[in-house]
Amino acid sequence: MKHAIYLCVATLAAALVYQIPPRFWDGTSWIWLLIAIALLVVVLIPGVGREVNGAQRWIPLVIVNLQPSEVAKAALVLFLASYLRRREDEVRESWTGFIKPLVILGILSVLLLLEPDFGATVIVCGTALGMLFLAGVRLMQFTIVALGLALIGVGMVAFAPYRLQRFLAYQDPWADPFNTGFQLTQSLIAFGRGELAGVGFGQSVQKLFYLPEAHTDFVFSIWAEETGFIGSIGLLLVFIALISRLLWWSRRALSVQRTFESHVFAGIALMLSGQVFVSMGMSMGLLPTKGLTLPMISFGGSSLIVTLCLLAIALRMTRECDKPEPRRPKS
């Protein structure tokens, strides 16, 4: 029932967002970034943020638990797209233009890690670096920053016992199937039960208290169990088609000099592809276990609403790509 309500709210929100022209998002991107930062601070306040499984990532509202990290992802995409439109030459030609957005990225990352939300931090950093790379930053600059962030990530895993435990457990979950490898072994059992065509909708056994977080982090495992290999490949192809289309529109927008729209298309594509890769890879044992939703599939109001609104923005932008580029201030 909650998910049905979220679907209605998300659809209504997306319909409203679709009516707003892209120029509005370009001009107000910095406002959404400030709102996202404020929410990330508020969620850390004791008594305000809701703690679940040791992580304080949600702000309880009337009908939904707001997850600021989802707002931060969308805000960062819009802000970076606007920044890259205004400072495209500076980003390509100097360290200054490249470092400025990295400062914003650092602030968001620190706030996300304080929750802690390592998965969202990885997606945010990956999306931002991907957008900067596609904007044409110098390869040497990009490589130095990417290697630096990678080393920081490795250090955070190595010096955090629970993250290191997860990393070691996913390599051989059957070595400790009732403790550190419990989630992954149960997920793999779900895949095994699905076989070619699945056990049928609603017939999953693993979601009956065997597989933790079956409706959120491991929803793809249940999908694989109920629809089998055929259903799993089908869902993967749908995501590939959506992401490919977004990248196609990014190139199309760039060809008609609509750089803001081009960067937004690319940012949404990068964000979705990162989440899909991590969520599906984690469920199949290709990546360490990490709490991350599968876009538009996992239960969760914040993720569903934000994702549909981003897609509504992208859909509205497809209407604008055949029109002349309006004059927008570079500063």
Automatic annotation (TrEMBL):
UniProt EC number: 2.4.99.28
InterPro entries: FtsW, FtsW/RodA
The keyword DNA damage is annotated on this UniProt entry: no
Pathway membership, UniProt: Cell wall biogenesis; peptidoglycan biosynthesis
Biological process according to GO: cell division; cell wall organization; peptidoglycan biosynthetic process; regulation of cell shape
GO cellular component terms, semicolon-separated: cell division site; plasma membrane
Sample GO molecular function, one term: peptidoglycan glycosyltransferase activity
Short name of any one Pfam family annotated for the protein: FTSW_RODA_SPOVE
Membrane topology: Multi-pass membrane protein
Residue ranges of the TM segments: 29-49, 95-114, 120-137, 144-164, 229-248, 260-280, 292-315
Locations listed in the record: Cell membrane
Catalytic reaction(s) noted: [GlcNAc-(1->4)-Mur2Ac(oyl-L-Ala-gamma-D-Glu-L-Lys-D-Ala-D-Ala)](n)-di-trans,octa-cis-undecaprenyl diphosphate + beta-D-GlcNAc-(1->4)-Mur2Ac(oyl-L-Ala-gamma-D-Glu-L-Lys-D-Ala-D-Ala)-di-trans,octa-cis-undecaprenyl diphosphate = [GlcNAc-(1->4)-Mur2Ac(oyl-L-Ala-gamma-D-Glu-L-Lys-D-Ala-D-Ala)](n+1)-di-trans,octa-cis-undecaprenyl diphosphate + di-trans,octa-cis-undecaprenyl diphosphate + H(+)
Enzyme class: transferase
Sorted UniProt keywords: Cell cycle, Cell division, Cell membrane, Cell shape, Cell wall biogenesis/degradation, Glycosyltransferase, Membrane, Peptidoglycan synthesis, Transferase, Transmembrane, Transmembrane helix
Family that this chain belongs to: Belongs to the SEDS family. FtsW subfamily.
Protein's name according to its UniProt entry: Probable peptidoglycan glycosyltransferase FtsW
Organism: Aequoribacter fuscus
Upper taxonomic lineage: Bacteria, Pseudomonadati, Pseudomonadota, Gammaproteobacteria, Cellvibrionales
